[in-house]
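Lab notebook, page 48
Experiment: co-folding of the full assembly
Goal: obtain a model of how the components sit together before planning crosslinking
Operator: M.T.
Materials (sequences as entered):
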Amino acid sequence: MKFFQLLAKIDRKIIFLILAVVIIVPLIKPFGLISRASSRAEAVFNAVDAIPPGKPLMISIDFDPGSMPELYPMLTSILRHAMAKNIKVIVLGLWLTGMGLGEQALATVSQEYNKEYGKDYVFLGWRSGVLPVILGMGEDIKKTFPTDYYGNPLDSLPMMNDIKNYRDIPFFITLSAGDPGMATWIAYAQARYGLKMGAGTTAVSAADAYPYLQTGQLTGLLGGMKGASEYEFLIKEKGYSKAQTPASQAMDSQSLAHLLILILIVLGNIGYFFIRKGTAKKEEK
Amino acid sequence: MNLATNIWTWIGAFLTFFIFSFLYRDNPFYKFAEHLFVGVSVGYSISISYHNVLYPDLIVPLFKHGQLLNIVPLVFGLCYFARFVPKGAWLVRLPMGLVLGFGAGAAIPATLQASIIKQLQGAVLTPSIFSRWDFFLWALISLVGVICTIIYFFFSKERVKSTKFAAEIGIIFLMVGFGASFGYTVMARISLLIGRFQFLLRDWLGIIK
Amino acid sequence: MQRQIPLALCLIFGIFMMVQFFVPHPVSNAAYEIVLRWVRIIAIFALVLGVGSLVMHHSTKIKRKASGWPFSIVTLVAAIITAFVGLLGVNVVNGKLMFFAGIGKTSLLQILFQNIYIPVNSTMFAMLAFYMASAAYRAFRARTKEATLLLVAAFFVMLGMVPIGSAISPRLPEFAEWILSVPNLAAKRGIIFGIALGSIATSLKIILGIERGWLGGGK
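Observation: model returned without errors.
Model output:
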């Protein structure tokens, strides 16, 4: 019991240090756990893969740098998949502070695949108001986004010539860190306009997506950094990309850190159990 | 080791350490980074709002193309600033009333369709689930879980023996649901920390690829 | 009048949006597109108002020399510089400054975003992992049977959803997936129903003017 009382007194800074070590060591010396794809991730991958030539994939950046390690690798992997397969891409976002991430990802990936702006991909940017943006695009994308992120009129971009509204978009993915995000797109674009969609979410909201997966409102799901690593695995396996895979590289650290947290919970509970038992005995006396 | 040569990467690394220094205790370095961040985010929001909304959606149509109907949202929008004028403060309610009415009117059918009808369709037992015993069993458990969870949330009437039992079952489902979310939350927080270490080890120090 | 007009506006636009949903006529569609445009533009002013309030807050702090006022100078200077380079479209191309060149990848706005906004914002959230590890040890106790259930479910999800889970046993990910897609699904669906009914009721109350909290005080 003394042991557990001693444990209970450990300074939290020591726990901070242990966590840092548990994460850093596998990053430097990986032990190579492989993150295979779940059926949920495969469903997203297959839906992107099945987009007919000439038709666009639409992606919404509904996150900011606060959840970048989870969702940014999804964004780059999905862009790589689409661009490797010559699928056109439309990117927009409901989070103003996510726009810089969209710019960064598009600049990086379009260069890797030698894609031309306006012909192969378009960055619509951000518009205020959330609901009028989602609903407006269901009627007419060009009226909702008269110009793209850079201020070019949409009419001047050849890729947008044949795209009017959601009916011209075979598949859509929201990369969502909360509200507005997955639930908003499901309620206002999927339910009302029948937009076929998948979601990449932060792990925090991944469990909330399951009722929508079962009903088919969501085609597939990438949950957290693990979901991102699954997509990285898929595009690498199919030969679409040779780029860095930050989410997959993180999986060793992720696994060890989970083990550490579990050990901490178990130790804390054993200590609690013994201390409580000890107090009960004293009271009996 | 392959140290970054870009000054901006060094700035990013130092700011990362400034924020991490809060783990020791609150200090001026943390406060500096925090206030710098707020400032940059304000400036960033102003810039994106101007380039993505105010200029293309309001200034160009109104002043370059003479689409006078855009005066209406301009006037409504300006009403937000009436809160700084004591006598006209009530004008703030005009854009609020319009936007709230719009949002509520849009939400009712959307919620009904996406969260009630579709979810009801998902909850009921359809013929396809009888194809395999496990499909059927899980669907049945889910249905019981949904009903019991709803009963747990129903506080309008005092519980009798049967509803009390159902509510207790509901709690079991809720706890498992919260547990699943909690497990995933742990995953999320760890991922975010890994992301920062990857930045420091890869982009700044060049220790990892 | 100061209450009636806003309430009437709320009623008119609320009913219009509902009617438009169920009766999508060409005339109502045209009006619908105009309304969507209006609301988008009005929404931007709410954001401008928020930015204005924040700037005023820091200016007052500096004027009154309130505690920590020098940090308010940092905020204001950073805001002014960022807004300046953003609005004027300052770009750095081959080491040279260019004005009115947009907000693309070579813009200073993007550089500030990538090298100041991203590191600070993401580190703030990354820090939570440390506090969670400490809480895991001190606070996550199986005090009741409900708390035990929560911890057991979390245990399997935490192990099953990362690669080490499948390395220990392929059954672990399967069981975690079962937790997520059966009991978790049931609980989340129950919650969705609850939230949906609540939001429909609140929306109706707002449209009909029964819920008037948003009007605030005064006449």
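Interpretation: Chain B has six helices and no strands.
Next step: discuss with group before ordering constructs.
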